[in-house]
Amino acid sequence: MKIVIIGGTGLIGSQVVNILKDKHEVIAASPNTGVNTLTGEGLEDALKNASVVIDVSNSPSFDDEPVMNFFKTSNQNLLPAEKKAGVQHHIALSVVGTDKLQESGYFRAKQVQENLIKESGVPFTIVHATQFFEFAGGIVATSTSEGKVKLSDAFIQPIASADVAAFIAKIATEQPVNKILEIGGPERFQIDEWIKQYILSTKKSLEVETDVNAPYSGAILQKTTLTPENPVYLGTTEYMTWIAKPENQR
Ligand SMILES: NC(=O)c1ccc[n+]([C@@H]2O[C@H](COP(=O)([O-])OP(=O)(O)OC[C@H]3O[C@@H](n4cnc5c(N)ncnc54)[C@H](OP(=O)(O)O)[C@@H]3O)[C@@H](O)[C@H]2O)c1
């Protein structure tokens, strides 16, 4: 079976490529390999005879305007091209709580992506994952002001990117469900407490200040905004085991 992985060179995409490449014809499609969903470059060729498309691409910029342009334009190019090519299953990775995080420009763009998929006429599965373990550093970077990391005490149920990739690779060989499937990690933390564990592992001397109104990606969180309601799969990798490995301490 031919499977095209848009964003196949990224954190999730490269792991999905590795899992599927022995049993399937896998194309890792990204600007680095000559396929650009924003401009349409290389898209028609990549999609020829493809049965499944997995979209795990991400915008190079998370600022409101470029991120909206990325997910809107990319999907407006990709989905009609898939329809024309006869693709039978479009799989896209999005985020648990996207519909509740619409104060955030990033999540407004992810919602537009999801709406375009649902309207496209291409059979689909949208996977809503929780935050990746690898994203802790990104949360610190966007939550630091005046030398302090300001975070809410809402819950988070992070997942190892390897567990996300394994789930996506599994559903690539299954039928589309035409709805959202939620996945998450095995444990629930408060965001402030989770990030303290991450900071300890990096040996940086950063102070975490808990503030229930501290925004996450520009949106105020309720206690369970970021946790899955009805997960169909929970990753098995526990955070403290994962972060204890030297290769994960970045
Ligand atoms: N971070 C989290 O905690 C989290 C949680 C849940 C869901 N997600 C979702 O997971 C998805 C994947 O995230 P990730 O961290 O694996 O991404 P990533 O490592 O940043 O990789 C992004 C990929 O997108 C590709 N890309 C960029 N511009 C493109 C374009 N114009 N056309 C085609 N491909 C393009 C990149 O290709 P090049 O290498 O060629 O630049 C790269 O392969 C995202 O959609 C995100 O919303 C993230």
TrEMBL record:
<feature type="domain" description="NAD(P)-binding">
    <location>
        <begin position="7"/>
        <end position="174"/>
    </location>
</feature>
<dbReference type="InterPro" id="IPR036291">
    <property type="entry name" value="NAD(P)-bd_dom_sf"/>
</dbReference>
<protein>
    <submittedName>
        <fullName>Uncharacterized conserved protein YbjT, contains NAD(P)-binding and DUF2867 domains</fullName>
    </submittedName>
</protein>
<keyword id="KW-0521">NADP</keyword>
<dbReference type="InterPro" id="IPR016040">
    <property type="entry name" value="NAD(P)-bd_dom"/>
</dbReference>
<dbReference type="Pfam" id="PF13460">
    <property type="entry name" value="NAD_binding_10"/>
</dbReference>
<dbReference type="InterPro" id="IPR051164">
    <property type="entry name" value="NmrA-like_oxidored"/>
</dbReference>
